[in-house]
Amino acid sequence: MIVYLLKRLAVLLASVAAAGVAVFAFMAVLPGDPAEIALGVNATPEAVADLRARFGTDRPPVTQFLDWFGGLVHGDFGTSYVTSSPIGPQIADRFGVTVVLVLGGMVVALLVAVPAGTYAAVHHRDPVGAAISAVSQVGIAVPAFLAGILLVFVFAVKAQALPSGGYVPIADDPAEWLRSLLLPWLSLGLVQGAVLTRYVRSAVLDVMREDYLRTARAKGRGRMGALWRHGLRNASIPVVTVLGLQLATLLIGAVVVERVFVIPGLGDLLLNGVAGRDLLLVQGVVMVLVAAVLLINFVVDVCYAALDPRLRGAR
Amino acid sequence: MLTVDGLGVRAGDLELVREVSFGIGPGERVGLIGESGSGKSLTALALMGLLPDGVTASGTARLGGRDLVGVPERRLKDLRGRTVSMVFQEPMTALNPLMRVGAQVAEVMTLHGVAAGRARERAAELLGRVRLPDPERIARSYPHQLSGGQRQRVMLAIALANEPDLLICDEPTTALDVTVQKQMLELIAEVAPALLFITHDLAVVASLCERVLVMYGGRVVESGPLREVFKHPRHRYTEGLLAASRLPPRGTRLATIPGSVPAAGRFPGGCVFRDRCAHATETCETAPELTAPELTAPDLTGPEPRGDGHAFACWHPRR
């Protein structure tokens, strides 16, 4: 178990380092020099060279990379070339909002998918089970931002029950904070929940055909008792895989939903950075997103080991 | 003790098992033999109340005064694992891969009212009783750490945990090595209370059982004491089955039964074996009853054993 975790941790750290190189290299080959952008088209070559020296972009790329990546380790993302303010605190602020948004969406997805998928599997011969499959099929076809707009139309415009957008920090007013996040959570969660429902359904169906479920019934467990005690944990293994992929998708997909609901998250910051040609900011945000996805994969691996004893000893 | 009368199993319009009747006395070991697709496993699952969805049983089966067929699931749950237990064919997939072996043995006891602590102790005892080495360690293992033979012993320990009246084994040794198979059979013979043993391996039946039921096409075509049926088979199907299991002298062809077992529901009307039987005549279009020889064999001559319960369903039995 310890060996497995250490190996996974090593893989995680190596991946983050490799991702750092990739993100840096990608931003470096993009056309556009920060100093030229900052000074505009009428700048003298001397002024540009002077500013480059100040930004440090006249140094060799390897030095720049080591300086940037070394800073990341301490939480220092550098200082924006455009606004001259430190990037780290901005990202930290925004990242918290996005994490809350994504995790809340995932919780909604799970609350929808686990009962609905399990019910659809257990009752796969009945009309209700088939109806759940059909509805989840429709849900898959709806993009999250469209679901968001529909939800805003119903709950904010028609019913006037919830705000159509905006974000209130939890420290200011917890009740308003909750109200401001409900619709974003629902629009992310319902769509992902529809996708997840199908995976939960097929995982539970697979498990229901397993011999050990028949063994459990031969011991004297009822149909549902056997499924509960012996089925759900087994069925959760394939679902965790999908969950990891979905979390990563949500994290990136939150960019759009943050726009729809005017939420100051990481996606919002990224779009602002791109619009303002704030290269170092964009580089920092992309790095954080990539690292978060890698971290999710690591957590999924840890979950596998926690769930399945066959993985613990083997590797 | 177990009395099965007119047991039938059907899936919608398909009749899979028909009119199966037999009894098993206390401590008696009965073999149920036949080719794949003859309805042996369905008969066993019907007795356990574990038929797949959409498959239903009819008729009666009583074990120690309690009904096994046509009873609500709630009542059957109480009997399963306590009064009647079953060991399945495939040991590799019959245990939950995510749960320690000891917990899986203990579970069958806690389900039927044994306190958790006591069940844990008993689990280790039982693992020792099925002759697993170092039962304490086995109890802490996960199924993937055990071999197929060891897992089947665990299954047997689970089946025996509540000291059931009847043990049903559905080809429990088919997936095992021959040497492991032998040990397993000896163990079953030693620990089983009354036993219903399902197999297509005649040698296994011969070494284990006192009485035998031969199934074909979802019916019992012949039944009786093991020696009697194996030495003097009367039904033409039993005759073919026994001939096929004998090793022929070098250079001669292996005896086989012509044709193959039809798909469920494709068996002929009348005698189910008549399309594969060399002795079939027009008479065989009417289904023969399973009865004792002196009553159903008008063409029978010569001295025959009597009163030993040797019965068969054939119009043209072997003499």
UniProtKB/TrEMBL annotation, chain A:
Membrane topology of the entry: Multi-pass membrane protein
Main location group = membrane
Q: A GO molecular-function term, please?
A: dipeptide transmembrane transporter activity
One Gene Ontology cellular component term attached to this UniProt record is: plasma membrane
Membrane spanning residue stretches:
9-30, 95-122, 134-157, 177-200, 237-261, 281-307
Organism's domain of life?
A: Bacteria
All residue ranges annotated as the ABC transmembrane type-1 domain in the record: 95-300
Gene3D superfamilies linked to this entry? MetI-like (1.10.3720.10)
Q: Which UniProt keywords apply?
A: Cell membrane, Membrane, Transmembrane, Transmembrane helix, Transport
InterPro entries given for it? BPD_transp_1_N, MetI-like, MetI-like_sf
Any idea where this protein resides?
A: Cell membrane
For this chain, the family text in UniProt reads: Belongs to the binding-protein-dependent transport system permease family.
State the PANTHER family in the record. DIPEPTIDE TRANSPORT SYSTEM PERMEASE PROTEIN DPPB-RELATED
Q: What is this protein called?
A: ABC transporter permease
Native species: Nonomuraea montanisoli
TrEMBL record, chain B:
The record's section on CDD domains has: ABC_NikE_OppD_transporters
Q: Does the keyword Cell membrane apply?
A: yes
- Compartment list: Cell membrane
| Gene Ontology molecular-function annotations | ATP binding; ATP hydrolysis activity
* Signal sequence, start to end: none
Q: Name one GO cellular component term.
A: plasma membrane
**Xref: InterPro entries:** AAA+_ATPase, ABC_Ni/Peptide_Import, ABC_transporter-like_ATP-bd, ABC_transporter-like_CS, Oligopep_ABC_C, P-loop_NTPase
Judging by the UniProt lineage, the source's domain of life is Bacteria
Membrane topology according to the record = Peripheral membrane protein
GO BP annotation list = peptide transport
List the Pfam families hit by this protein, alphabetically. Answer: ABC_tran, oligo_HPY
Sorted alphabetically, the keyword list is: ATP-binding, Cell membrane, Membrane, Nucleotide-binding, Transport
Q: Where is the ABC transporter domain?
A: 2-242
Protein family per UniProt? Belongs to the ABC transporter superfamily.
What NCBIfam families does this protein map onto?
Answer: oligo_HPY
Q: What is this protein called?
A: ABC transporter ATP-binding protein
